[in-house]
Every structure is written in structure tokens, then in C-alpha cells.
Design goal:
mainly alpha; 0% strand
């Protein structure tokens, strides 16, 4: 029996978004997403909690070496050892592991983004990789599925940014594209000014609504088989959208107010329609 304890400890924290997303995942894919989701959380912990660049780089280098050990059948980390049981032929997706580490490192080094295309690329390289890995492994790489994965990653990156923007701002990182700030006559310095809240709220509502509308259309165009493999990130996306909207509905919107987890979660509100 494979020991999933390390993955469960990382991902299945009662009340967390990842816990509920996993619960709503189709059973044939739960083990795969348990491991890939735990690995995703582990790598993002480095981005968000190890702000000394040399320390973060050392940790990411270790993970890059661990990916190489896994491909050689010599994984040492419990999550990676479990991953070899879930995906027993990891060489099928060899290049994606390298790309994932490079994407996470790019997030660490990013100070600002110029356009929506830059934001989409960062999301694709840092958040979409687990879904890309799973779909490539099972040879589900049609254009529609890959498009949905990319759109999921943009909504999830926006969620990450909102939840941690104060911490990131303290380190000089702004992930709202400069193009969008300029359109609202805002600068990066304005993000710290209370008087900019109204313009910023307009920017965030428009941006999120555009991303969500496009995502819904493409998601509903997928077949049941295509949706099944992506239920985990899909549930995370729904939770993120609801959390985001709840914050923007507030009459006393303030960019400095942290987003809260939504509990309890249940099937009714997880449905969009």
C-alpha cells in the first residue's frame, strides 16, 4: 500500500479550499490530484513564505534535483515517492517538471507584469503545470482541454495574488498588468493609497468578470471525460471566484482587507447555475 500521509497532511486541511476541491474531484482522479495538489502547495509555499531569495532558490534547486531523482527511480521525498505510484512512467512528462520549476522561479523574480499575456504566461508556467502533467500523461491534449487549463490557471493566479498581495507588495511585486493599471489611470504606487480603492475595485471587477465569462464558456464545451480529469482545479476555480466576488460586493471595499476562506462549503453554492 502506498503511504499518502504526507500528501494528505499538506492538502486535506479541513475547511481549506484544497480540501473541498479534492472532495469534489471525481474518484478515478483523486489520488493523482492528491499528490499533484500537495506538490503544488509545497512549491507555492516557497514562493510565499521564503522571501530570502538565496534560500528560496536553494529550495527550488533541491526540488529540481528531486525531480531528476524521481525520473531515475530514486525519489527521496514522500510526496515524490507517492507520485511514482500514481504516475508509474514519469518520463512521459519529463520536460514539464523542469518547466514547472522554472515557472515557480520566474514568479519569485517577477517585479511587475506589462500585459495580460504576461499574466497568462506566468499563470500557465506556475499554476497550470499539474493539470498539464496529468493530461499529457493520459494523452488528453486536445486544444479545448489545454485552453481550459490555461484559463483555470489565470483565475487561480488572480486568487493567489489577492490573498497575498500585501506580502508581495512589501517585496516590490505587483502582478496586476501595468496595462490594466494604466487604463484605470493608476500607477503601482497608487495601490497603497486608500483614495484609489474605487478605481481599483472597478479594475478588479472587470478583470475577474472577463476571465470568468471566458472560462465558463470553454468549460461547458468540454465533454464529460475532459471535465472529469480537471474537476480538482475546476472546484478550486469556483471557490476562488466566489471568494473574490464576496470581497468585491462589500460597500466598504478596501484593498488591504484580506480575503477569507468560505465555510461551510456545500454543493449548492459550488454550482454556478
Amino acid at each position: 500500500m502506498t503511504d499518502y500521509t504526507a500528501c494528505e497532511t499538506k492538502l486535506l486541511i479541513p475547511g481549506s479550499s484544497t480540501y473541498y476541491a479534492w472532495r469534489f474531484t471525481a474518484s478515478p482522479w483523486q489520488n493523482a490530484w492528491l499528490v499533484l495538489g500537495a506538490l503544488q502547495e509545497t512549491l507555492w509555499d516557497i514562493v510565499l513564505h521564503y522571501r530570502e531569495l538565496s534560500v528560496a532558490q536553494a529550495k527550488l534547486l533541491w526540488w529540481s534535483e528531486e525531480f531528476a531523482r524521481m525520473l531515475a527511480g530514486q525519489a527521496t521525498h514522500p510526496i515524490m515517492q507517492t507520485l511514482t505510484h500514481v504516475l508509474p512512467e514519469p518520463n512521459r512528462v519529463q520536460g514539464l517538471f523542469t518547466e514547472w520549476i522554472e515557472g515557480i522561479m520566474a514568479v519569485m523574480l517577477c517585479e511587475h507584469l506589462c500585459t495580460d499575456a504576461d499574466f497568462a504566461l506566468m499563470a500557465k508556467r506556475s499554476i497550470a503545470m499539474p493539470a498539464f502533467i496529468l493530461c499529457r500523461y493520459y494523452q488528453l491534449q486536445d486544444e479545448q482541454t489545454l485552453k481550459v487549463i490555461s484559463q483555470q490557471s489565470e483565475l487561480l493566479l488572480l486568487d493567489y495574488y489577492w490573498r497575498y498581495h500585501q506580502r508581495l507588495l512589501a517585496y516590490g511585486q505587483v502582478w496586476i498588468p501595468l496595462q490594466r493599471l494604466t487604463n484605470q489611470k493608476l500607477s503601482m504606487e497608487d495601490l497603497t493609497k486608500p483614495e484609489s480603492s474605487s478605481q481599483l475595485k472597478t479594475l478588479l471587477i472587470t478583470w475577474q468578470a472577463t476571465l470568468e465569462h471566458a472560462y465558463k464558456q470553454h468549460w461547458h464545451a468540454l465533454t464529460q471525460e475532459q471535465q472529469s480529469i480537471l474537476k480538482y482545479p475546476h472546484a478550486l476555480t469556483r471557490i476562488a471566484c466566489r471568494r473574490y466576488k464576496n470581497a468585491l460586493k462589500s460597500r466598504h471595499f478596501a484593498w488591504c482587507t484580506p480575503l477569507r476562506e468560505l465555510t461551510p462549503l456545500h454543493k449548492l453554492w459550488l454550482s454556478w447555475y
